[in-house]
């Protein structure tokens, strides 16, 4: 088909012409107009492709129908010929009988009957021929009309052409790209039909190419607020993040990967003003700052750990509507968004009517945290499980306020509830009016380490009776909340950490009071919750398992057995099947394997130091011989990888996209920059030196549609970037 040919030509032309366009001051105004039109082109892209696809399908169907009609005509002609032959034979028989009847001297009635029968058969054949001729004429007419339709369709598709226009302005500064318009050269754009150009209304969609497909999405930070996008998540192929553009403060933003498609979702909190006093003059004045709703001032004026998670159709995040003042403060509340301004709303205000000046009113923990999205399935609504304080004042015997406990929400006020008050208190308190109130709960069980697996939420909680132990909550109807096991009997607590879903249950680190901090496994009940192996034997010894990572049907982690230092281990949930994979730094020295560890093409990638090359990129297939260094990125004893901090603080800084692992590394020349590897030494390469002479620190990595989004410091500000490993054009 012509469409396929046109696209092939486009791919070829765009690859040939990549990087050839340059600046042209005469085209600046046209460039601006085209950039504005690009947003509409993106919105109409799917419709345009569907129209073209429909046209192509119509042509295919028309050709198929034409073939069918041709076959029908041929069959009709054959049938008419066959009937004509039958009629000829019958006529010969009739003439022979008439001759016999004329020559006979007797009254041969049987001959006459035979002649009459032949006459009737001939009449029937004539009627059949007449009907077939009528069908033949109809089919021929339809065929002729279809030929005209096919000619029109073919001409329309033949007019589908490409036209190279101007440099795309939002490509990388040192690598400008091309914009190609695709449409129908039919003169509708006030151009000349058949001149090989498509303009204006002739354009169906646009193909834009940034060679290498690596470039800034947008940068609207200010010098005062240059932390760049934070807390990146993906919902329905769209990037959402927290960002301060210097005008609205820290708020929820979204981006489709284009400059025109990057914008604030909703300005929740405007300018905050407090009355300040000039120390020199003593005069009072309004001190105003717009920090936004996701920058919290209630803890030492530091960017608080605001959170954002994505379901299938809902974004859940924490935001503060008011500045931390005498009441209704800056503590975060729960919000929900469908990606639109009107669909971004407060779910539940956990701090309404709370008086911060009450006597002895002090929570030991901070607001809403530990958000875990529960994607809805089969049409069910997305939900979020989280830990929160309920601080509504003046409720007396109803038991408010309540300390930090486990909550669940479907994004509506009615659908938001506390799952259980695991650790209630009954302390009295005095409100701002000096009235003693009943039943304050200042601490709560403080749920932490939440993970979602198999319609269960696993978490840890602190109680006076058990200490911090392992719990689970069933999301299905009647699922209930359970203490899985008092792993360390009594009130000491086992301090479970690093809950990691695996086949049939979860792995975790815990101290049962007998074996120190060792690897445990649980299927959700006390009987199945046990230490996997006492890697460093003894009550007072601990192997401190860390970086627990699911690997096929096993678990890879780091541990110290007291003899070989901290090395890489593997387990199949049996004592015999739990062993050190390789003593990477031989002897008692540690190789300090750390992550975030990622699995690519059946191999796990991690950082380790063999005592010779420094902390470098390694991979393992779970065997000693299959555990090797990928590349000495920073040659010699110098380290290239500074991994090990939890992704919680900088988002993901190692991420698998397609057939590559993308990561942050320092080769000793270019600073901490964006690298990628396919698992081979030659395929491990620097992709972006975002800050020449310094560190760009690529963080907050997410992926959608095989595209990598990340933030990186360009020497002045932290900027949102996109990388797409696609040599061809970007269709918009």
Helix content: 10-25%
Radius of gyration: 38 Å
> Number of helix segments?
4
Assembly type: single chain
Shape: elongated
Structural class based on helices, strands and sheet pairing: alpha+beta
Return residue spans where pLDDT drops below 50 for at least 5 consecutive residues: 1-46, 162-167, 296-304, 324-329, 394-399, 727-732
Mean pLDDT: 78
Beta strand count: 44
Percent of sequence in beta strands: 35-45%
End-to-end distance, in Å? 22 Å
Corresponding CATH architecture of the domain at 2-209: Orthogonal Bundle
* Major sheet attributes: 4 strands, antiparallel
Spatially, the strands of the biggest sheet line up as 1-2-3-44
CATH level 1 name of the domain at 2-209 = Mainly Alpha
Keyword list:
disordered N terminus, 732 residues, 4-stranded antiparallel sheet, 4 helices, Helix Hairpins, alpha+beta, disordered C terminus, 35% strand
Entry summary:
With 732 residues, the protein is of the alpha+beta class.
Question: Any overview of this molecule?
Answer:
It is a single chain. It contains 4 helices and 44 strands. By secondary structure, the chain is of the alpha+beta class. The longest helix has about 80 residues. A hairpin with a 5-residue loop joins strand 6 and strand 7. The N terminus and C terminus are likely disordered. Helix 2 runs antiparallel to helix 3. The strands form 12 sheets. It has a 4-stranded antiparallel β-sheet. A 4-stranded antiparallel β-sheet has the order 4-43-42-41, with no helix packed on it. It has a 4-stranded antiparallel β-sheet with strand order 5-6-7-8, with no helix packed on it. It has a domain of about 210 residues: Helix Hairpins (Orthogonal Bundle), CATH 1.10.287.
């Amino acid at each position: 088909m012509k469409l396929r040919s046109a696209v092939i030509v486009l791919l070829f032309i765009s690859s040939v012409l990549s990087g050839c366009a340059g600046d042209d001051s005469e085209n600046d105004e046209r460039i601006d107009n085209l950039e504005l039109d690009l947003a509409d082109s993106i919105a109409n892209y799917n419709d345009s492709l569907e129209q073209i696809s429909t046209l192509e399908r119509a042509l295919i169907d028309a050709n198929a129908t034409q073939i069918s009609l041709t076959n029908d005509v041929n069959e009709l002609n054959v049938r008419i010929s066959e009937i004509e032959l039958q009629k000829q034979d019958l006529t010969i028989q009739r003439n022979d009988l008439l001759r016999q009847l004329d020559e006979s001297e007797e009254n041969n009635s049987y001959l006459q009957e035979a002649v009459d029968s032949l006459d009737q058969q001939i009449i029937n054949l004539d009627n059949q021929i007449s009907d077939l001729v009528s069908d033949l004429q109809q089919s021929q007419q339809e065929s002729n009309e279809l030929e005209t339709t096919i000619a029109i369709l073919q001409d329309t598709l033949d007019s589908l052409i490409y036209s190279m226009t101007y440099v795309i302005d939002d490509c990388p500064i040192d690598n400008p790209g091309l914009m190609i318009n695709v449409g129908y050269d039919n003169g509708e754009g006030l151009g000349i039909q058949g001149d090989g150009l498509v303009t204006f209304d002739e354009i169906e969609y646009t193909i834009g190419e940034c060679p290498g497909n690596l470039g800034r999405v947008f940068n609207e930070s200010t010098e005062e607020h240059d932390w760049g996008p934070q807390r990146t998540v993906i919902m329905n192929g769209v990037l959402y993040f927290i960002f301060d553009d210097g005008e609205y403060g820290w708020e929820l933003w979204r981006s489709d990967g284009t400059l025109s498609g990057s914008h604030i979702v909703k300005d929740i909190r405007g300018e905050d003003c407090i009355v300040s006093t000039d120390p020199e003059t003593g005069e009072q004045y309004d001190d105003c700052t717009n920090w936004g709703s996701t920058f919290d001032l209630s803890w030492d004026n530091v960017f608080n750990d605001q959170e954002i998670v994505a379901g299938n159709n809902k974004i859940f995040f924490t935001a503060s509507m008011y500045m931390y003042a005498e009441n209704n403060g800056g503590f975060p509340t729960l919000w929900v968004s469908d990606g639109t301004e009107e669909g971004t709303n407060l779910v539940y205000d956990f701090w309404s009517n709370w008086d911060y000046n009450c006597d002895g009113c002090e929570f030991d923990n901070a607001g809403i945290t530990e958000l875990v999205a529960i994607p809805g399935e089969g049409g069910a609504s997305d939900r979020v499980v989280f830990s929160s304080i309920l601080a509504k004042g003046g409720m007396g015997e109803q038991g408010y306020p309540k300390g930090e406990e486990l909550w669940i929400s479907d994004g509506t006020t009615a659908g938001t509830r506390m799952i259980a008050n695991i650790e209630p208190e009954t302390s009295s308190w005095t409100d701002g009016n000096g009235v003693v109130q009943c039943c304050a709960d200042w601490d709560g069980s403080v749920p932490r380490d939440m993970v979602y697996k198999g319609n269960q939420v696993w978490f840890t909680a602190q109680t006076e009776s058990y200490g911090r132990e392992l719990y689970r909550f069933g999301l299905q109807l009647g699922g209930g909340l359970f203490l899985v096991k008092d792993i360390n009997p009594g009130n000491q607590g086992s301090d479970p950490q690093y809950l990691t879903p695996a086949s049939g249950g979860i792995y975790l680190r815990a101290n049962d009071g007998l074996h120190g901090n060792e690897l445990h496994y649980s299927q959700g009940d006390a009987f199945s919750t046990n230490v996997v192996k006492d890697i460093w034997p003894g009550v007072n010894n601990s192997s401190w398992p860390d970086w627990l990572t699911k690997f096929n049907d096993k678990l890879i982690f780091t541990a110290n057995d007291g003899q070989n230092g901290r090395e890489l281990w593997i387990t199949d949930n049996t004592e015999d099947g739990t062993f050190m994979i390789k003593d990477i730094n031989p002897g008692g020295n540690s190789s300090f394997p750390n992550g975030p560890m990622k699995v690519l093409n059946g191999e796990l990638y991690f950082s380790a130091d063999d005592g010779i090359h420094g902390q470098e990129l390694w991979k393992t297939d779970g065997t000693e011989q299959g555990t090797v260094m990928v590349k000495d990125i920073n040659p010699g004893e110098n380290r290239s990888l500074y991994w090990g901090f939890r992704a919680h603080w900088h988002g993901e800084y190692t991420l698998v996209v397609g057939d590559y692992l993308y990561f942050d590394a320092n080769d000793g020349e270019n600073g901490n920059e964006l690298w990628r590897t396919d698992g081979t030494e030659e395929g491990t390469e620097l992709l972006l030196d975002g800050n020449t002479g310094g560190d760009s620190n690529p963080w907050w990595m997410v992926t959608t549609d095989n595209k990598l989004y990340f933030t990186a410091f360009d020497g002045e500000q932290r900027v949102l970037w996109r990388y797409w490993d696609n040599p061809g054009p970007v269709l918009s």
